[in-house]
Amino acid sequence: MPWKVFIRRRAEKQALQLPRPVLAALYELMVSIREAGPVRGEWPNYSKLPGNRHHCHLKKGRPTYVAVWTENKDTITVEIVYAGTHEKAPY
Q1: Is the Cβ–Cβ distance between 84 and 13 less than 8 Å?
Q2: Residue span of the structural domain in which 19 resides
Q3: Has this prediction a pTM greater than 0.90?
């Protein structure tokens, strides 16, 4: 059963400011999560954060762009809560 992937309004605004290749990577991540779930070990620098949160790098280098998402196993939903540079990421 596919996961439902949502993007928080604030993260959507952040995503619109991302460079085109990074935005494409975010979309790929969302598709990957929808098909295979929130644990995305094949993505660069993926890690599970405390609670139901996860993060990975969308682009390495300078600046490094990351995505942070939360999962809810009861409703099979994932919410993207942050997309942007790693300096401002809510780890």
Answers
A1: no
A2: 11-38
A3: yes
